[in-house]
Amino acid sequence: MQPKRLLDLALGSALLALAAPALATAAALRALRRPPGGILARETVTGLHGRTFTLRTLPVRRLRLDALSRLAHVVRGEMSLVGPAPLPTGAPGADAHWRRLVRPGLTGPAQLRRGSTLPWDEPQLLDQHYVEHHGMGLDAALLLRTPAALLGGAGRRRSARRRRKRRRRRTATEPPGAAGHHRTATEPPGATGHPRTATGGDRRRGQADLSDADHRLRRYSAAE
């Protein structure tokens, strides 16, 4: 058995055992609501050697139970802890030949960059780079980054919800006709209508455009 598969089996089984109580509770609560699509979301994805399987996910994002519910696929050998993001059969890029060389993963370069300002084709390039250069060292680095990325994503979602609530409160308390007049006296004329773009100078480090510079993928590091 290969070291990568041994890691998937050992760590995946341990994580699944730890997450089992929370998963069972969330599944029971969801069953009480009797969702029309059933307790689990299902989609057909392509895995190792082009074999397809039904990916079952508990669609509960709190505590990232949606990702943890996929650990059963890791233990069964249909997925890996680290690998390219699983794509539904028929999705753009799902039939790429390099995807057939490894199992799809719970985490990976593309999954860790999810929610950033990457161009639409960047996740495919990151996944392809991983397949061409993967090893136990890269897998370990990506696994170590995953908890912080998950917590950071949850924090961003909470901040976005708070901002939406504040906007709704401001809108509810504004006098009629006041909407759309929030420019301050110190704002330079003509500044309205010129939002900063994702490709401007304020992009965070590690999120530069790669789509027109594919050669940089050879130097991609999980520690960026």
From TrEMBL:
Ranges of biased composition (kind: Basic and acidic residues): 201-215
Keywords assigned by UniProt, alphabetized: Signal, Transferase
Signal peptide: 1-24
Bacterial sugar transferase domain: residues covered: 60-151
Pfam families found in the cross-reference section: Bac_transf (PF02397)
Keyword Transferase: yes
Keyword Oxidoreductase in record: no
Region Disordered, annotated ranges: 153-224
EC identifiers of the protein: 2.7.8.36
Compositionally biased intervals (Basic residues): 155-170
GO molecular function: N,N'-diacetylbacilliosaminyl-1-phosphate transferase activity
Family: Belongs to the bacterial sugar transferase family.
Name the UniProt record assigns to this protein: Undecaprenyl phosphate N,N'-diacetylbacillosamine 1-phosphate transferase
Organism of this sequence: Streptomyces rubrolavendulae
